[in-house]
Design goal:
The chain has 193 residues and is an all-alpha fold. The protein is built from 6 helices and no strands. The chain has one domain (9-186): Growth Hormone, Chain: A, CATH 1.20.1250.
Length: 193
């Protein structure tokens, strides 16, 4: 019985892009969680940020899924990461030169969560098409292990980065990783009809 090769061009690119995005997201999320609490001193303010970030994942897919079904999903994936990159990079630059604004961060968190929900929907709809036929089980095993493994590795590393460089530089790096992920995704070859 012949086994299908999993690591073809498209699969390798999507896993590389996912790895970069996940590394940045874990480090940035870790740093921002401490930033909000440090700046506000309020667990309620921190919890409100988390609640705001969950809302788009409930409502956005219902609205965007029918639109996404009619358009190339790769465009949603790439452009979502580009937009995410500029927002995160801008937030890092803001923190370098200006004071933290809770209301501004709340609004930006909502916008980033909206982008994240569209990105997640685009990824989950395009991912099955990037796995070679016959290697689906292996492909899903790789993707399901990616986030837990990177979380175990990146969480302590993010703490060191936070102490060494601060939140602003972590966000700037996260923006850069998100842009690299978008560039990597743009090389995926997929015929979406």
């Amino acid at each position: 019985m012949e086994t299908t090769k999993l690591w073809n061009r498209n699969f390798s690119l999507v896993i590389l892009a996912s790895t970069m995005g996940t590394i940045g997201g874990i480090a940035g999320g870790f740093a921002l969680a401490f930033l909000v609490f440090d700046e506000t001193g309020s667990t309620l303010a921190s919890a409100l940020i988390l609640a705001i970030q969950l809302l788009p994942f409930l409502f956005i897919p219902i609205v965007i899924a029918p639109i996404m079904d009619r358009l190339p999903r790769k465009t949603f994936l790439v452009m979502g990461d580009v937009a995410n990159s500029f927002l995160i990079f801008g937030m890092g630059l803001w923190l370098l030169f200006f004071d933290f604004s809770y209301i501004g961060y709340l609004a930006l968190s909502l916008l980033l969560a909206c982008l994240g929900s569209v990105d997640e929907l685009a990824f989950t709809s395009i991912y099955p098409e990037l796995i070679p036929k016959g290697a689906e089980q292996k492909g899903y095993a790789v993707s399901s292990m990616l986030y837990p493994v990177l979380t175990v590795i990146m969480t302590p590393f993010a703490a060191v980065l936070l102490d060494t460089f601060g939140v602003a530089w972590i966000l700037i790096a996260q923006g850069g990783l998100s842009l690299l992920a978008a560039i990597t995704e743009s090389f995926i070859r997929l015929d979406e009809t």
